[in-house]
From TrEMBL, chain A:
It comes from the Bacteria. This is Golgi phosphoprotein 3 (GPP34). Keywords: Golgi apparatus, Lipid-binding, Membrane. It comes from Paractinoplanes atraurantiacus. The keyword Ribosomal protein does not apply. InterPro entries: GPP34-like, GPP34-like_sf. Coiled coil: none annotated.
UniProtKB/TrEMBL annotation, chain B:
GO terms for cellular component: plasma membrane. Signal peptide: none annotated. The chain crosses the membrane at residues 23-46, 58-79, 100-120, 140-159, 166-184, 204-223, 243-263, 293-317, 349-367, 373-401, 413-431, 443-467. Keywords: Cell membrane, Membrane, Transmembrane, Transmembrane helix. It is a multi-pass membrane protein. This is Amino acid transporter. InterPro entries: AA/rel_permease1, APC_superfamily. Its main location: membrane. One of its GO terms (molecular function) is transmembrane transporter activity. It is found in: Cell membrane. It comes from Paractinoplanes atraurantiacus.
Length: 216, 505
C-alpha cells in the first residue's frame, strides 16, 4: 500500500481535524487554534530552531526555515524575546494567528479551498480540504504504519500526540484495535522526544483549560 | 492579525492579545451573582425556611454569614493567586492539607452541588404547578414539570449550550429589580410594622441558630466561583478580591433587606402564613400595593430564575466532573469532551442520570417536592458547602505556613485563623441543629442521613486517594491541579495513553 506524502506537522493536523466525507472541521475553533499553535511550535522544534525546556521556549537558531508559516512564528518569537512560556505562546498563537498561517500554506499548496457558508447571521468563511480524500491522508498513514507494526517517525509521533491531546482520537483512532492502540501508545511512551512530549502535554492542558473556562 | 508587521519591541502583541479578554470587577460580580439566583433564595428558600424551621432571624443570619465569608475570602482570594485550578475547594484542600483530604472534599463537593441541582428540579415543579393552573387552567403534576426542565437542562448540557451572558445578566437585573420593588411595596403595605425579629442578634446564639446560618449560607453559594478568574482578571491583586467582597455584600444586603421587609409585612403569624402560602408569601405580602401585572412578572421571573440557575449549575457540575476525570480522581471517561464543541459530555450525562433518578424516586414515593426536595436539597447542599468552606479555611492556613512568600500576615494567618474559628463554630451549630433545619425529629432518618452521607463520601474519597497513592503515584501527584495542569498527569487522551496502555479506550 502506498503511503500519501507527509506534509508539515501543522498541515497534517489541520487535515486530520477535518471530516474526510464532508470536509467539516471536527474541532471547536478554540481547540483547532490550540492544535495549530502547538503544531507550528512543534515544526520549529523539528527544524532545530527551538528547544523546549522547563515550560520555556529557547531559540537555538534564528535562521529562517524556508517555510513561511514556521518562519513567521520564529520571527514573532524573536521580536518578543521577553516572553518565553510555552503556554503563553500556545494561547497567543491560538488566537487565530496559527490557523491563519496554516490555512494560507495549505491553500498555496492547493490542498484546501476557501468556503463561504451563508447562514442566518451573515456568512462564515472557512477553509476546507479541496478533496475529501486529502483530509484522511495523515490519519490513514498513521493507522497503516501501526497496522503493519512499523515505527512512526518523530513528526508522526507528535501528530499522534496532538490528535490525542485535542480529542481528535475519538474520530481518528476509533478504528484501531486494542493491539494497534497499545502499539501506538507504547511508541509514544518510548520514542516521543522529551521536548515534544512537553509540547503535547502543554497543549493538552491548554485544551482542558479552555473547556473549564468555557472557551472551547 | 498580521504576524509580519513590525512592532516596536515594547509594544508586545502577545501581551496585548492575552490581555484583551481580561475581566473587570463588574463582569466577575455578574458571573458570581448569576449562580446565586436572588428570587430563588428570597421567594423560595426564605419562606420555606420560615415554614419548616419556624425561625425568623434570617436577615441577621445573612449579615453574619456575609461577614464570616468576607473574612474567609481574604485568605481564599490570596491563595487563589498562588495555585492552579482555583475555584475548586478541593484544590485548596489538596495543597493546604494534603491530597487525601482533598479527594474527600472533591467528592463532598460533587454531592453538595448535585443536591442543589436536584433541589432546583423539585423547586421548579412545585412552584410552577400552581402557577400553570392559575395561568392556563391546567393541572400538571409537579414531577411532569420537573421532568420537562430536567430534559431541557440535560439536552443543553450535552450540547454545552450556555445561557447567553447577556440573557443571564438581563434576567439577573430584572430579578434584583423585582426583589427590591416587592420589598419596598412591603414597606408601604398597610400591614407593615417594622419587625425586629429578623434582625435580632440573639437568634444567632439561640436554639436553631445553626439552621438559620445554613439557610443563609445557601444564599451565598456561588461566591466561591469568583476566584476562577484569578488568572484572567485585569488586576490579579485587586479585581477578584473586590468582586468577591462586593458580591458577598450585595447578596447580604439584598437578601437581608428583602427577608426583613417580607416578614415585617406578613403580620403576626409569619410562620403560619409561610406554611400555608409557601413561596407565594413573598409575592402575596406585596401584591395589594403592586397589582396583578407585577405579580405575574414576579412569578415568571421566579421560574426563569430557577431555570437559569439550573442550567448554570449543571454546567458547573459537568465541568467539575470533567476536571476530576482529567485528574484521574474520577474515571478517565469523565475527562473526555466532544471534540467539535468542547462539551464535557459524560459529566453532563452522569448529572442528568442522577437528576432523573431523584425526580422519579420523589414522584413514586409521593414526597413533597417543595420541602423534601427543594428545601432539603438546597439546605443540605448549603451544609455541604459550609463544611467545605470551613475545611478550605484551614487549608489556607496550612498552605501559607508552607509558602509564606508574597502575602502579608493578615492575608496569610490573621484572617484565615479568624474565619476558621468562626466557620468551625458555624459548622458545629449547623450539624447540631440539622433536625431543626430539616424540620424533623432529632435522631430521625433525614437528620442522620444528610451529615452521614457527607461523612461517608469524605471518608471514601480519603481512602480512594490512599489507594491511588500506592497504585498510581502519577495520578496521585496531580490531584488538585485540575485540567489545566501540564504535569506528568492531569490530562486527557495523551496522558491517559502514557499513563496506562490497558485502561484507555
Amino acid at each position: 500500500m502506498a503511503t500519501s506524502p507527509q506534509l508539515p506537522l501543522a498541515d497534517d493536523l489541520f487535515l486530520t481535524a477535518h471530516d474526510s466525507v464532508k470536509g467539516k472541521c471536527q474541532l471547536s475553533p478554540a481547540t483547532l487554534g490550540l492544535g495549530m499553535a502547538a503544531a507550528l511550535i512543534g515544526e520549529l522544534v523539528l527544524w532545530r530552531r527551538l528547544d523546549l525546556v522547563d515550560g520555556k521556549i529557547q531559540i537555538i537558531d534564528d535562521r529562517p526555515t524556508g517555510d513561511p508559516a514556521a518562519t513567521a512564528v520564529l520571527d514573532q518569537l524573536l521580536r518578543e524575546g521577553h516572553h518565553r512560556a510555552i503556554r503563553d505562546w500556545i494561547s497567543f498563537l491560538a488566537t487565530g494567528i496559527a490557523v491563519d498561517l496554516v490555512e494560507r500554506r495549505l491553500s498555496r499548496a492547493g490542498l484546501v479551498q476557501r468556503q463561504e457558508k451563508r447562514g442566518l447571521f451573515g456568512s462564515k468563511v472557512s477553509f476546507v480540504p479541496s478533496d475529501s480524500m486529502i483530509a484522511g491522508w495523515p490519519a490513514t498513514r498513521i493507522r497503516t504504519f501501526i497496522g503493519r507494526g512499523e515505527m512512526l517517525d518523530v513528526p508522526d509521533l507528535v501528530l499522534a500526540g496532538l490528535i490525542l491531546a485535542t480529542g481528535l482520537d475519538q474520530h481518528v483512532f476509533v478504528t484501531l484495535d486494542a493491539r494497534g492502540r497499545s502499539q501506538l501508545f507504547d511508541q509514544l511512551k518510548r520514542r516521543l522526544p522529551a521536548m515534544l512530549h512537553e509540547l503535547v502535554s502543554q497543549t493538552e492542558a491548554a485544551v482542558g483549560d479552555a473547556v473549564m473556562a468555557r472557551r472551547a | 492579525m498580521s504576524t509580519t508587521s513590525t512592532q516596536p519591541p515594547e509594544q508586545s502583541q502577545l501581551s496585548n492579545a492575552l490581555a484583551r479578554d481580561r475581566l473587570g470587577v463588574a463582569a466577575v460580580v455578574f458571573f458570581v451573582m448569576s449562580a446565586a439566583a436572588p428570587l430563588t433564595v428570597v421567594a423560595g428558600v426564605v419562606p420555606t425556611g420560615l415554614a419548616v424551621t419556624g425561625l425568623t432571624g434570617i436577615s441577621i443570619a445573612f449579615v453574619a454569614v456575609a461577614l464570616v465569608l468576607a473574612i474567609f475570602a481574604v485568605g481564599y482570594v490570596a491563595m487563589a493567586r498562588h495555585i492552579a485550578n482555583a475555584g475548586a475547594f478541593y484544590a485548596y484542600i489538596s495543597q493546604g492539607l494534603g491530597r487525601p483530604l482533598g479527594v474527600g472534599a472533591s467528592w463532598v463537593a460533587l454531592l453538595a452541588y448535585n443536591m442543589f441541582q436536584i433541589a432546583s428540579y423539585g423547586g421548579f415543579g412545585a412552584i410552577a404547578a400552581p402557577l400553570f393552573s392559575d395561568w392556563f387552567g391546567v393541572d400538571i403534576q409537579w414531577w411532569i414539570l420537573a421532568l420537562i426542565c430536567w430534559a431541557l437542562t440535560a439536552v443543553l448540557g450535552v450540547l454545552d449550550v450556555a445561557v447567553n451572558g447577556k440573557v443571564l445578566a438581563t434576567l439577573l437585573v430584572a430579578e434584583i429589580v423585582v426583589v427590591i420593588a416587592f420589598s419596598f411595596a412591603d414597606i408601604f403595605s398597610p400591614n407593615f410594622s417594622a419587625s425586629s425579629a429578623p434582625l435580632d442578634p440573639g437568634t444567632l446564639v439561640g436554639a436553631g441558630s445553626g439552621a438559620l446560618l445554613v439557610m443563609a449560607v445557601t444564599g451565598f453559594v456561588g461566591f466561591e466561583q469568583s476566584v476562577v478568574f484569578s488568572e484572567e482578571s485585569r488586576d490579579p491583586r485587586r479585581t477578584v478580591s473586590r468582586a468577591t467582597y462586593l458580591s458577598v455584600a450585595i447578596i447580604a444586603v439584598l437578601y437581608g433587606f428583602a427577608a426583613w421587609a417580607m416578614i415585617s409585612a406578613a403580620g403576626d403569624d409569619v410562620v403560619g402564613r409561610a406554611a400555608n402560602e409557601g413561596p407565594d408569601l413573598f409575592f402575596n405580602v406585596a401584591s395589594d400595593q403592586l397589582g396583578g401585572a407585577a405579580l405575574h412578572i414576579g412569578h415568571a421571573l421566579f421560574l426563569t430564575s430557577l431555570i437559569a440557575a439550573m442550567i448554570s449549575f449543571h454546567n458547573i457540575i459537568s465541568r467539575y466532573t470533567f476536571s476530576l476525570g482529567r485528574e484521574g480522581v474520577l474515571p478517565r471517561a469523565f475527562g473526555k469532551t466532544v471534540p467539535g464543541t468542547g462539551a464535557p459530555k459524560n459529566g453532563s450525562l452522569a448529572q442528568s442520570a442522577l437528576g432523573l433518578i431523584a425526580i422519579v424516586v420523589y414522584a413514586v414515593n409521593g414526597w413533597d417536592p417543595l420541602v423534601n426536595m427543594f428545601f432539603w436539597g438546597g439546605t443540605a447542599g448549603g451544609l455541604g458547602v459550609l463544611i467545605l468552606v470551613s475545611i478550605t479555611s484551614i487549608a489556607v492556613i496550612g498552605y501559607f505556613l508552607k509558602h509564606p512568600e508574597g502575602e502579608d500576615f493578615w492575608h496569610r494567618i490573621g484572617a484565615p485563623v479568624l474565619s476558621t474559628i468562626l466557620l468551625i463554630i458555624m459548622t458545629y451549630l449547623a450539624i447540631d441543629n440539622i433536625a431543626t433545619l430539616l424540620g424533623v425529629e432529632p435522631g430521625s432518618a433525614p437528620a442522620i442521613v444528610v451529615p452521614l452521607s457527607f461523612a461517608v463520601l469524605f471518608a471514601a474519597g480519603f481512602v480512594w486517594a490512599l489507594i491511588l497513592r500506592s497504585s498510581n503515584p502519577q495520578v496521585y501527584a496531580g490531584i488538585g491541579l485540575g485540567a489545566r495542569s501540564a504535569t506528568a498527569t492531569g490530562g486527557g487522551g495523551f496522558s491517559a495513553a502514557l499513563a496506562s496502555t490497558e485502561e484507555s479506550k
